[in-house]
Amino acid sequence: MVAAEGLALDVVIEPLVTALLTPDLAALKAQFATTAQVPAEHDKALLRVGRTHYGQATLSASERAALRGAFVRLVIAQ
User: Fold this and answer.
1) pLDDT digits over 34-73, tens only?
2) In whole angstroms, what is the distance from residue 76 CA to residue 70 CA?
3) 2 has pLDDT over 50
4) Which alpha helices (H) appear in 1-78, and where do they start and end?
């Protein structure tokens, strides 16, 4: 992933992470310690943001992976 693209993803994903309630953030951090699978309720919002960011109705596998990876990284960094 290009560094500039990663930064752009961080900017669009950060509001999702900062909107998490403390118990939800703690639960996600605990989950991400063992798996990088994003729970469905968060994944739906994440993919919606990604479709807007990329300006397309369907995301490629690499775009979905980049979004999910950035989300996991940002949650862990909180």
Assistant:
1) 999 999 999 999 999 999 999 999 999 999 999 999 999 9
2) 10
3) no
4) 3-18, 22-32, 40-54, 61-77
- Close Cβ partners of 63 (under 8 Å, ≥ 6 residues apart): 50, 54
Domain that holds residue 29: 3-77
Angle ∠(27,75,1) on CA atoms, nearest 5: 140
Q: What are the Cα distances from residue 34, in Å, to 16, 30, 39, 58?
A: 21, 7, 13, 29
Q: Report the number of distinct structural domains present in the chain.
A: 1
Q: What is the pTM of this model?
A: 0.87
